[in-house]
Amino acid sequence: MRRFRTPEIMDDPSVPREDLALSLRYIRGVNRRLGGVSALLCHLDFWRRDPAFDWPRDRPLTLLDIGTGSADLPVAAVRWARRHELEIRVTGVDLHPTTLELAREHVAEQDRAEKSRESPLAAAIDLTQADALRLMDRFAPASFDIVHAGLFLHHLSELEILTVLRIMDRLAARAIIWNDLVRSRVAYAAIHLMTLGMPRIIRHDATVSVRAGFTRREALDLATRAGWTRPRHAWRLTTHRFTVTSTKPPPRPTISESDAAAL
Question: Is 7 domain-assigned?
Answer without folding.
Answer: no
